[in-house]
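Example 3.2
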Amino acid sequence: MRRARAIVTGRVQGVSYRASTAAEARRLGLAGWVRNRSDGSVELEVEGDPERVAALIAWCEQGPPAARVSRVAVEDLAVTGERPPFAIRH
């Protein structure tokens, strides 16, 4: 298992980034959440199979079609073992 936090910067708010990230994470069977930050970036935490977590992070580097991602900063975290459905936080 792997758990990671990512901060995504660029044009990532107002372009369905959160909804698209949640849909991709659910498709991959991952747990976690995604939310907008007040500085215009998007933050997410994800947990699951290491290859699937890596796949979501790779997806985040592009995001949905209208997004323009500048950077994805990733930090590995301690695994919690919790498996709630991937959620959008407000």
